[in-house]
Structure formats: C-alpha cells, structure tokens
Amino acid sequence: MYEFGGCYSMDGEKVITSTGMTKQEIESNYPGFVCPEEMNNGWYHYPHRETRLEFEKRAIELSNWILSLVDSEPDVSTSNNSTNLMNSTTSTPTPQSVVQVPIPTSTSTYVFVLHGYLLTTLINQLLYLKPSSCVLIHNNTGITHIELVKFQSGNRGSVLQYFNSLPHLHGRKD
Q: Helix, strand, coil % (nearest 5) of the chain?
C-alpha cells in the first residue's frame, strides 16, 4: 500500500520514478517479512507518476480486498439472535425506539498503517460515504477503528468506533 502518486521524486519539473525496494531488499532489512513474488523487481511498476484515475482504481481494489477478508471469514454465530438498541433520543424504551440489530458474525482484526489521501479514500469507501461527501483530516499517527461486519443475512456493514484518536501521545486525553 502506498500513497497517491506512487514512488517518485522531482528534479525541477522532471518526474523521476523508482521501483522501490525489491522483495530481497525488504526481506533482508526486515527479518520475518515475507513479500510476494510480484515484488522481485520492486513494488512500483508504473513508468510515470500515478494518475488520479490509476489511484482511484487501486483504492477501490484495496477496499474490495479488505471487504473480501471479512466476506471470507467463517460464520461464528451460534443462533439467529439479534440485539435491541434504544434510540438515543428517547429516555424510556418504547416499541418505536427499539431497533432490532442483527449480531455480526465475524471476529477477526486487521491493522493497516496508512496516511494521506489513501487513508481518506479508504475510510470513505469502508464507511460507504460518497467520495465528495466529506473531507477527513487525519493527524499524523492518529488511530481510527472501523469495525467491518458481516451479518447472518450475508450483508456487510461498518461501524466507526473512533476516528483520529491520539491516546498514545503523551499528555493527550482523547
């Protein structure tokens, strides 16, 4: 996963692309890492700076891959249970304020380290937001937790647990 634009540098007005580190370089510098064969000659393969259309296609493919991880998980549910959530605007539960929510059936955790435009685009896609519907500003080292769920019905959903949290920075209360 890499940021919009790919692996390049600028020499004045001239764009200079690079293939990035090879499989062998990464595996020798980071013991325990295992890279795919596609990285034998590096990880960036465009002879130019990545275009916006190329980036958007890649971001959609990444989002679809992440969602396929959830789709491929085994069903861990044991019954057709659902849980009641009270509407937060009502202090006393009434039939109109209780919503039946299907219990999610997947339980795995995946961690991705991302930044910039790729992070913003991916969060928009995983939360099913229109690309132009909101701008997400993410602090450097901010942590976002999105729960991706697969329901017994086979439908998927997402829950934003927290966004841009910084509890790991000394003195921060959020």
A: 25, 20, 55
Element containing residue 129 per DSSP (H, E):
none
C-beta pairs of 38-45 under 8 Å, 24+ apart in sequence? 42/7, 42/18, 43/2, 43/7, 43/19, 44/2, 44/6, 44/7, 44/17, 44/18, 44/19, 44/20, 45/19
Work out the angle at residue 107's Cα, subtended by the Cα atoms of residues 65 and 156, and round it to the nearest 5 degrees. Answer: 50
User: 22, 41 in Cβ contact below 8 A?
Assistant: yes
- Tokens (6 digits) for 72: 């491929």
Nearest to 149 by CA among 70, 60, 69, 61: 70
Element (H, E) at 84: strand 82-86
Tokens encoding 159: 């829950």
If we measure between CA atoms, which residue out of 9, 94, 2, 72 comes closest to residue 39?
A: 2
Nearest Cα to Cα of residue 112 among 73, 63, 56, 60: 63
Q: What is the pLDDT of residue 172?
A: 60
Model confidence over 68-100: pLDDT tens digits?
A: 887 777 655 444 444 433 334 434 444 443 444
